[in-house]
Design goal:
- It is a single chain.
- The chain is an alpha/beta fold.
- It has 2 domains: 185 residues, Rossmann fold, CATH 3.40.50; 172 residues, Glycogen Phosphorylase B (Rossmann fold, 3-Layer(aba) Sandwich).
- Helices cover 40% and strands 16% of the residues.
- The chain is built from 14 helices and 13 strands.
- The strands form 2 sheets. It has a 7-stranded parallel β-sheet with strand order 3-2-1-4-5-6-7, with helices on both faces. A 6-stranded parallel β-sheet has the order 10-9-8-11-12-13, sandwiched between helices.
- Helix 5 links the parallel strand 6 and strand 7.
- Helix 7 crosses helix 12 and helix 9 packs across helix 10.
- The chain is globular.
- The two termini are 35 Å apart.
- About 3% of the residues have low confidence.
Length: 384
């Protein structure tokens, strides 16, 4: 079996979908040595992240200037390079124009641009509105990262159950409880986090609800003036609002913007945090709460979209639009050591049920079923 995978995002993005593609491919090639994998990518510079190296992996990489970087239209993707391809997988919403005889899979990570368009930049909405319907029509199988996304695919695009495969994301093995104090102290010193802190991880953009979290934090500080709020993540769409509200509420020094952090630093931050707060308005899956759980951080998160499905009973869930509820949950958890320990133990157990090995096993099953001519999927898809 010969499988081609669009690897562009994996070399271009450190987090988000880039991490999804890297982790999934690494797990696939570790699991399956009998198939041949072609990793296809176009890049804009020589600064990309590296490709995996295995005997059964071939890399096809070209460089294009920014203004021509339209991977879903690239003719080189449909030429099949050194020989015939059996399966083509587009892991980032899009599929190029391909031979009708080729089996095709597309991964859809969320439909935020339809369900919550106010939280998605206009250019991204336009792009996804163009490529997603075409990819769904072209694909033999549509992979959804959660049942929440599967339901949205059925609701908005009438994708039938038998065409959908739900394959949840995983948690990397590096995300674990750390007992060595040295990396923890190095990270603490680097970011000046000497006080107890509440951690949140995610790009600074409206969908992540940093504004609501910061407003809630002002109430928390009325009871716990020693606590700091640490926000780890790149500056994204409309990030200025988040920085402005910190100034407006006079929280400089109490709300720390950590920016992009390395994976090692992220593991240390999860391990040191008193609480991990993730009151996002919408997630197609939501990996950060599971990463936090794997590292032993008690989690507070939203009761919307896929998050209840992902965290189960291992987190405190709340209405992300309710500022008072966010504040009350953080304050309660800060004061209740027994509850924190209960969530910590439940979190360890919950995170263990999500691995990239499991995700790769399910994806490989889809590849093989397609290769063997099966056309009906959706065995475990929940649409109601």
């Amino acid at each position: 079996m010969r499988v081609a995978i669009d690897y562009t995002t994996a070399i271009a993005q450190g987090a988000g979908i880039g991490r999804y593609v890297r982790c999934l491919v690494e797990a696939l090639i570790a699991l399956d040595s009998s198939s041949q994998y072609e990793l296809l990518a176009c890049g804009r510079s020589a600064q990309e992240l590296p490709f995996p190296s295995r005997p059964n992996v071939e890399v096809r990489h070209i460089f294009l200037p920014d203004r021509h970087w339209f991977r879903w239209q690239l003719p080189f993707y449909s030429r099949y390079f050194s020989g015939p391809v059996d399966i083509y997988h587009g892991p980032n919403f899009a599929l190029p124009s391909l031979k009708k005889t080729l089996r095709k899979i597309v991964t859809i990570h969320d439909l935020a641009y339809l369900e919550y368009p106010q939280y998605v930049p206009p250019a991204t909405r336009s792009y996804l509105n163009a490529v997603v319907p075409a990819a769904i029509a072209e694909a033999d199988v549509v992979v959804a990262v959660s049942h929440s996304v599967a339901r949205a695919l059925n609701q908005y695009y009438r994708v039938p159950r038998e065409k959908i495969a739900v394959i949840p994301n995983g948690v990397g093995t590096r995300f674990r409880h750390v007992t060595d104090p040295i990396p923890l102290e190095e990270t603490r010193r680097k970011f000046g986090l000497h006080a107890p802190f509440v951690l949140s991880v995610g790009t600074l953009e409206p969908r992540k609800n940093h504004l609501g979290l910061i407003k809630a934090f002002t109430q928390v500080r009325e009871q716990r003036a020693d606590v700091v709020l640490a926000l780890a993540g790149d500056e994204g769409w409309l990030y200025e609002e988040t920085r402005q509200i910190v100034t407006k509420l006079k929280l400089e020094g109490r709300v720390r913007f950590l920016g992009r952090v390395s994976e090692d630093e992220l593991v240390a931050l999860y391990n040191m945090a008193e609480i991990f707060a993730f009151p996002s308005f919408y997630e197609g899956f939501g990996i950060p709460p599971l990463e936090a759980m794997a590292c032993g951080a008690p989690v507070i998160t939203s009761n919307m979209s896929s998050l209840p499905e992902v965290v189960g009973d291992a987190a405190l869930m709340l209405d992300p639009y309710d500022i008072d509820a966010i504040a009350a949950s953080i304050s309660h958890l800060l004061e209740d050591r027994e509850l924190r320990e209960s969530l910590r133990q439940k979190g360890y157990e919950r995170a263990r049920s999500y691995s990239w090995h499991n995700a790769a096993s399910k994806m490989l099953s889809v590849y093989r079923r397609l290769y063997n001519g099966e056309t009906v999927f959706g065995d475990e898809v929940e649409l109601s």
